[in-house]
Amino acid sequence: MDLAFTPEEQKFADDVRAFVRANLPADVRDKVKNGKHLIRDDYMRWQQALGKKGWLVYTWPKKHGGPGFTPAQRYIFENICAEEYAPGIIPFGTKMVGPVIYTFGSEEQKAKYLPAIRESTVWWCQGYSEPGSGSDLASLRTKAEKNGDHYIVNGSKTWNTMGHWADWIFCLVRTDPKSKPQEGISFLLIDMKTPGITVKPIIMADGGHEVNEVFFDNVKVPVENLVGKENEGWTCAKFLLANERLGIAAVPQSKRGVEALKDIARAEREDGKPLIENQSFAEKIADLEIQVTALEFTELRVLSQMAHGGQPGPEVSGLKIRGSEIQQRITELTMEAVGEYAAPYLPGLLWQGTNEEPVGPSYAHLAAPRYFNTRKTTIYGGSNEIQKGIISKMVLGL
Amino acid sequence: MDLALKPEHKAFADEVRAFARDNLSPATREKTFSGKHYSRDDHMVWQQALGKKGWLAYTWPKKYGGPGWDVTQRFLFENVLAEEGAPRILPFGPKMVGPVIYTFGTDEQKERFLPGIRSSEVSWCQGYSEPGAGSDLANLRTRAVREGDHYIVNGQKTWTSFAHWGDWIFCLVRTNPDAKPQESISFLLIDMKTPGVTVRPIIMTDGAHHVNDVFLDNVKVPVENLIGKENEGWTCAKFLLANERLGIAEVPASKRGVSVLRQIARSEPQDGRTLADDPAFTAQIADIDLQVQALEMSELRVLSTMAQGGAPGPEVSTLKVRGSEIQQRIAELTMEAVGEYAQPYQPGMLFQDTNETPIGPDHAPPAAPRYFNMRKTSIYGGSTEIQKNIVSKMVLGL
Amino acid sequence: MDLSLSDEQKQLKDAAERFVRDKYTFENRRKIAATERGWLPENWAQFAELGWLGMSFSEEDGGYGGGPIETMIVMEEFGKGLVLEPFLPTVVLGGGMIASAGSKAQKEALLAPMIEGKKQFALAWLERQSRYNLADVSLKATKEGAGWSLSGHKGVVYNAPSADHIIVLARTAGSAREPKGLTLFIVDAKAKGISRRDYPTQDALRASELTFDKVSVGADAVLGKVDEAFPVVEGAVDRAIVALCAEATGCMDAINAATLEYIKTRKQFGVPIGKFQVLQHRMVDCFTNAQEARSMTLMASLKIDDKDPTVRAKAASGAKVQIGKSGKFCGQSAVQMHGGMGVTDELSVSHYFKRLTMIDLMFGNQQHHLTRYSNLAMAA
Residue B375 is nearest to which of C207, C332, C361, comparing CB atoms? Predict the structure, then answer.
């Protein structure tokens, strides 16, 4: 057992850092550092740079065009990107539909879709949840009826993240209304430009637009866009979920978040001293930092098992739960640190990056909107209640 | 609305205080403040003094020999006694079986049993739980079969507090094995000296003997010991539970607990000063203090509804839930205040009146045992989970 | 970076598991706890034979060249069985301090026989007023000819009834609570002037209150340098904390397993109570807590030999905070889910709960270590 990096791992870390410094556009770095909202082009510029280097799909195996990183390299890559204020990689193509396609797709599908995902020239989004199917995903009703060499899709998807920027959507649709819920679902890729698709924004509590409703009205989808077999889409969905759980803990981002919180606590003053000298507030940060460390070492234990050929064990399921709670706690403490100046609401500054003068310190207006917005982390990707249900059944056998 | 006391109530409080100071033995009082266990005598001497004064059955209406107090007097009585270090009144006679008898019993039964309860000359215990019937009480299996003018009782009761001190036990027994569980239960009074009754101690984790198994082996009980109608005992049981839940929050004892905790903090050394100078610790005391105040106001609101002729609703379940959590937290903080000196185990100091000197300060020996023991409060009298189910169903309509 | 066990470490884990399975059934443990000594010499001899008493010491010191990971492995299994033998005071604390600060002669006279199972130690640091401050020491050692004379009081000294030598932290200079001016003395447990009050602890271990009345020792009794003991004690206690965290992790595994089994079998309302979602989610929270405890223990075990003392101290305190939090959660939840049975002496669950509770109180509780961690992190 050893925590230290080997000389090769050290060299790799240096390479990653040099790459990020040379290729992350300064304005994007600045936005991430200051917690501002990114636009489509910000993500694309960074992801395409990674794509060119072959690192965008860093979790993919070599034979599908990934770099074939070891778990230690993966850890190093994620941490350095976060430390250097790189934006998080949008997962819909790289971590979600990509692995589904290379695992369940035909050779034609691999050739057609994977290169654009690796290079980030196509933006993907996810069509899972529906108004009546949230935690109970298998009850979904969006219908795809076979008509010659097409499916005709009717229904609606909701909580669709960044669909207003997307070129393609991967959907779970019902292809057999008569069988058991899980057995009548298929996994379908749909071009967002197809006639009959409408995207309607959902405005969140912080005033932001990041999710949408997507309506399908007699949308014609070629049968060759079906991934895997008809009515076996639930298998793809489960695979995707398991694949997603590890990274969803967002440990590197949380480590960066704790550092940013400390900076704010050093800048904020109380009784003529920096807030960070307030023992009780400092202890709240310390407690958070310990939680992040515990989560990081749980993730490292899993990675270590995987490096030795093991499968991620039961502890993985807990990562999403604790990871999301920690993300929330960071925003909560940040808002607490800002105090009364968290109250002013400045949508222009927040959303459009206007030249408006901030009220209070430059980070203040972000604190409350982030706190409100981050409540989503214990809800999305399978709410924490659903995650506990999964662990209870699959791990504990209850 | 008014929180202030009227002059006659002030006079009443003074009278209660004077009575407690005259009648409560210093040894018993000391046990209360140091958290040691009482002997049977400690309870009996005190309860009999209360009985003589006519105050033991203080919740009873006048016509059954109670003092007929208003809710303010009850509140003052409970609080003053707690402040003075009186042991809590054992509820089995005065708060449990007594009200059942005067509500559901015959005149003969009232005459026969109520005086012994009011004077505390007869000790009662409760035969409810069974090995297979805990939270699911209606599942109880102890059988009472009618044979002429007797019932023959067979079965086992468990978690029977103070059965080893009890003269009588009130039991829920099954009198009709064919009907629905709740419709076949009867409420029976059994003399503990009847042949076939065996008491076996259950030793708790702190070494204490409070609870017992009670075995009933062909115990012959006269039919005149049945309260209410045969197979309608569940009505008595529900009445008793509703009656019990209010006082079970133990607010006066928790108020005393907080003040004792502050005293301990003032006496415990830390870094050349005392624990009371440690803001992290005093903030925790402040937090529990506020929780006690919130609970007290909730209880006062219920009492005020009752004073206007209203009945306590199922929401009193929340009082029991919070009351038990608060008692546990006070015990936990008290143990933390004692620190390393909570580790020595001194059963002599806990259970017997020995001359042994304590290891560490006087308040140290009971600290950890009390913490262990208080875990029971969220289990007994309907566990926290059961109480929340009651609120969820009866109050929220879920 | 590699967090997997080596083959030797896997064998060690197997051996420790086997020992606990064979020798520490719950009924056996109850019998051992009821003996006068509170632990079994034959088990201690077996530890020596298996090499556990020397595994974490360097070969130079007569050990087998392991380290904190080996200690972690064994302590975790000890936690599963609530093992009573005084491994922590003798090997981790006593042996650890002699290895780090002892002279060649002291190592030969004390460490070598300890590794063979022939000597046991106890560390006497706490005093009535100390709480968790290791420097709050008033027991005085004054010069007496070539040697020293010790007078004062020490409390809750684990393993003092069985120890051959008491390692005493005494003030030789400086004012109250000053880290400088502390000295460690290795004192024969039977030395004239020591009086002992022995007692069991809540979790069935043995400890004593010790009074030192002009106890004379030679100059060779000093462990390390005069007036410079604080870093030695602090380092040893941090190592002991990490070992305790491993023990606590084992306790949590065991108490969670017992609770899971119980809620699968205990029936109410016609179904196993584990079918109720409120208990399922609580059980999941217990497992998540134990995972976090295991992660922090591993982190601390890997960092406790770091060159930077701040890294070591932060690692120990960070792990202790986690263990306090997780131990309380698992312990209290286990009792609650067992219902009344959870508070009886009859089932193992209450015994694990008591041990977890006492572990939080030892060498500083969750709050103490949160403050310590916070101060270290802010100073960095």
Answer: C332
- Which chain A residues are within 8 Å of C377, Cβ to Cβ? 282, 285-286, 289
Assigned CATH topology for domain A124-231: Butyryl-CoA Dehydrogenase, subunit A; domain 2 (2.40.110)
The answer to whether residue A286 neighbours chain C at the CB level (below 8 Å) is yes
Would you write out chain B's pLDDT as a tens digit for each of its 398 residues?
677 888 999 999 999 999 999 999 999 999 999 888 899 999 999 999 999 999 999 999 999 999 999 888 998 999 999 999 999 999 999 999 999 999 999 999 999 999 999 999 999 999 999 999 998 999 999 999 999 999 999 999 999 999 999 999 999 999 998 999 889 999 999 999 999 999 999 998 888 899 999 999 999 999 999 999 999 999 999 888 777 776 778 999 999 999 999 999 999 999 999 999 999 999 999 999 999 999 998 888 888 887 787 777 777 888 999 999 999 999 999 999 999 999 999 988 877 667 788 899 999 999 999 999 999 999 988 899 998 998 888 888 88
Residues B255 and B347 in one domain: yes
Handedness of CA C152, C157, C163, C169 (dihedral sign): negative
Domain check: are B356 and B273 in the same one? yes
Give dist(CA A148, CA B302) in Å, integer: 70
Could you tell me which chains touch chain B, where touching means 3 or more CB pairs under 8 A? A, C
Compute CA distances B288 → B79, B316, B371, whole Å: 18, 20, 15
What ipTM was predicted for this assembly?
0.89
**Pairing mode, strands C121-124 and C165-171:** parallel
How many CA within 13 A on the CB side of residue A143? Answer: 10
Per-residue pLDDT of C132-186, as tens digits, reads 999 999 999 999 999 999 999 999 999 999 999 999 999 999 999 999 999 999 9
Phi, psi of B13 (to 5 degrees): -60, -40
Q: Where are the beta strands (DSSP E) in chain C?
A: 121-124, 140-144, 147-158, 165-171, 182-188, 194-200, 206-217, 222-223, 267-268, 271-272
For residue B273, the surrounding DSSP H or E stretch is: strand B273-274
Fold assignment, C122-229:
Butyryl-CoA Dehydrogenase, subunit A; domain 2 (2.40.110)
B258 and B289 both lie in a single domain: yes
Among C268, C270, C346, select the one facing B135 at the smallest CB separation: C268
B84 is catalytic: no
Q: Do C155 and B269 touch (CB under 8 A)?
A: no
Candidates B130, B244, B268, B299; catalytic one: B244
Q: Which two tokens stand for residue B326?
A: 């608060």
Give chain B's length: 398
Q: For residue C290, which residues of chain A lie inside 8 Å, CB to CB?
A: none
- Mark yes or no for CB contact B279/A283 under 8 Å: no
CB contacts, 8 Å: C373 with chain A: 286, 289-290
Is the CB of residue B271 less than 8 Å away from at least one CB of chain A?
no
Q: Among 1.10.540.10, 3.90.930.1, 3.40.50.2000, 3.40.50.1980, name the CATH number for the domain at C7-88+107-118.
A: 1.10.540.10
C184 lies within 8 A of chain B by CB? no
Contact criterion met (CB < 8 Å) for B279 and A279: yes
Best mutation target among C283, C323, C374, C376 (most A Cβ atoms within 10 Å) is C374
